[in-house]
Amino acid sequence: MVALTERVQRLTLETVALAHPEGAGETDTTAIRCLDWDRERFDIEFALDNGTTYNSFLIRGEKVALVDTSHEKFRKLYLDTLKGLINPAEIDYLVISHTEPDHSGLVADILKLAPHITVVGAKVAIQFLEDLVHQPFERKLVKNGDRLDLGNGHLLEFVSAPNLHWPDTIFTYDHKTQVLFTCDAFGMHYCDDSTFDEDLELIEHDFRYYYDCLMGPNARSVLSALKRMGDLPGVVTIATGHGPLLQYNLQELVGRYRTWSQEQAKAVKTVGLFYVSEYGEGERLAHSIAQGILKTGVAVEQMDLRTAEPHEIRELVMIALGVVIAMPPQTGDFAPTAKASLGTILAATHAKQSFGLFESGGGDDDSVHLLRNKLQDVGLTEAFPPILVKSAPTEATYQLCDEAGTDLGQWLTRDRTIKQMKSLDGDLDKALGRLSGGLYIITAQKGNASSAMLASWVAQASIEPLGITIAVAKDRAIESFMHVGDRFVLNILEEGNYQPLMRHFLKRFAPGADRFVGVKTYPATNGSPILAEALAYLECQVTSRMECSDHWIVYSTVDTGRISNQDGLTAVHHRKVGNHY
Ligand code: FEO
């Protein structure tokens, strides 16, 4: 194994000659791992605790293939390193797993260095690249099962994996080395010097978080890809586009993808989320809405109208209890198809469904309202007002989308909530209800987004370091602000002085609404709001989370705290039953 590391403002690069895990020697395959140590956010929803990596691979048979490139921020480092490994003009093929810029950001540079290279990808990927690079290039369109022989045994086979995580995704399997190159799938945003997944405990949180954010909304697509992977003769390494490569815990981690996706796919309630792939903000807004829906235990199936067949659109609308539609472009080449797709959606909707609409890119509001009227005429219930995004999205925009999605999911699961409130075992419910807790308000701020929640299931959990646990229902807006590394304030309410704050924060807020209007606050050291009327506050940082059925148990260390009234007592929440709050 040869490793080369060069630090440039915490952007470093590592090249590793991949060895066969069963000791059969090197594999003529080199991983080029671009380590982005300090990246704090990915797309939208993703606050990154551990940076990320962008992985690219060089396979040398008689012909040479490069699988993916890197983020443009690595331009010099990546190209210098690549030139150190090979004369780029000698690369025959550039395989594009998908076209998101974190992997295709240097395609134009590679084309300049290797003008005769053949770009290999799904049809949609190649179409998108044409717009991206503005120069002619040789291409080879591949479908599931297509093969490309590099010689010396390196027979590449392509696996169609749409929606993981963009519609144009393909995996590439090398029959000689049994390495499967999956780009986003099975990845994680985790940056450290380890090339592989030796330490499961270290990476499993990021692996799960990444799945929830990127793959959960496409669980059925994950299952389809897993089925196609099952047709391959055997995979010993999964070479991901982000984070460590999987060898040591490959079966375990692939198994987790299967289990999580099966759980999603089994969900009785599904929302169809229709959008038009533009490789940009629209997708990210759609993704935030999907995240919000998933929090409620409702499944989401995203469908790109650019690639979906009419019968697929119809089938999804028919099984869905809710539909979310991103307004497609009203002008341009795709407009007639988009119009026809909307017609297909409308024709398949029925009065028992609910819906939500959103539009980005400063498009035509009239068409949103027209579609809204038509859906309401059919009898559908509007789950949230149309989201019209007129300027570059911020944290608050994505939060609005997330909360709108949650509102839709909660509407679809309202029967579950009512059922929970019906007593199943009177004595047990009453006995459980005698567990009491204090009354607290959690407050948090991230960029220009903020949130707050009344909490009662709070307990001290450790002394060294000082730590507390809070149980947070999975469908709470504040949940997005309580991932590992996030900071928040726990405001402790005072007996005799808690009613106004409790009433305020128990209100149902519209998606994206500012929770702090009319409430006196001042900023904590960690940036979150402290409630001026609280008895005391603690500044906390999340260190770990444990999944407990319908709640997350969030363990946080306490950095600092203050009390405003030395004689004050904590307000106590006395309940009658334990089967709901
Ligand atoms: Fe890592 Fe979907 O790009």
Sequence-ordered SSE layout with sheet pairings:
Elements: E1 11-19, E2 26-36, E3 41-42, E4 46-47, E5 52-60, E6 64-67, H1 75-85, E7 93-95, H2 101-104, H3 107-113, E8 118-121, H4 123-133, E9 138-141, E10 147-149, E11 155-160, E12 170-174, E13 179-183, H5 200-215, H6 219-230, E14 237-240, H7 250-266, E15 270-275, H8 281-294, E16 299-304, H9 310-319, E17 322-326, H10 335-348, E18 354-359, H11 365-378, E19 381-382, E20 387-388, H12 395-412, H13 414-421, H14 426-433, E21 437-438, E22 440-446, E23 449-455, E24 458-462, E25 467-473, E26 487-492, H15 499-506, E27 521-523, E28 529-531, E29 536-548, E30 551-563, E31 572-573
Parallel strand pairs: 6-7, 7-8, 8-9, 13-14, 15-16, 15-17, 17-18, 18-19, 18-20
Antiparallel strand pairs: 1-2, 2-5, 3-4, 5-6, 10-11, 11-12, 12-13, 21-31, 22-23, 22-26, 24-25, 25-30, 26-29, 27-28, 29-30
Helix pairs in contact: 6-7, 8-12, 9-10
The chain binds MU-OXO-diiron.
Residues 98, 100, 102-103, 165-166, 184, 241-242 line the site of MU-OXO-diiron.
Describe the structure.
- The chain has 15 helices and 31 strands.
- The protein is an alpha/beta fold and 581 residues long.
- It folds into 3 domains: 2-263, Ribonuclease Z/Hydroxyacylglutathione hydrolase-like (Metallo-beta-lactamase, Chain A, 4-Layer Sandwich), CATH 3.60.15.10; 269-417, Flavodoxin domain (Rossmann fold, 3-Layer(aba) Sandwich); 426-573, Pnp Oxidase, Chain A (Roll).
- It has a 7-stranded mixed β-sheet with strand order 1-2-5-6-7-8-9.
- α1 links the parallel β6 (64-67) and β7.
- α8 (281-294) packs across α12 (395-412).
- The longest helix is centred in the C-terminal third of the chain and has 18 residues, at 395-412.
- The protein is globular.
- 45% of the residues are buried.
- The model is unreliable at 1-8 (pLDDT under 50).
- The structure holds MU-OXO-diiron.
- MU-OXO-diiron is lined by residues 98, 100, 102-103, 165-166, 184, 241-242.
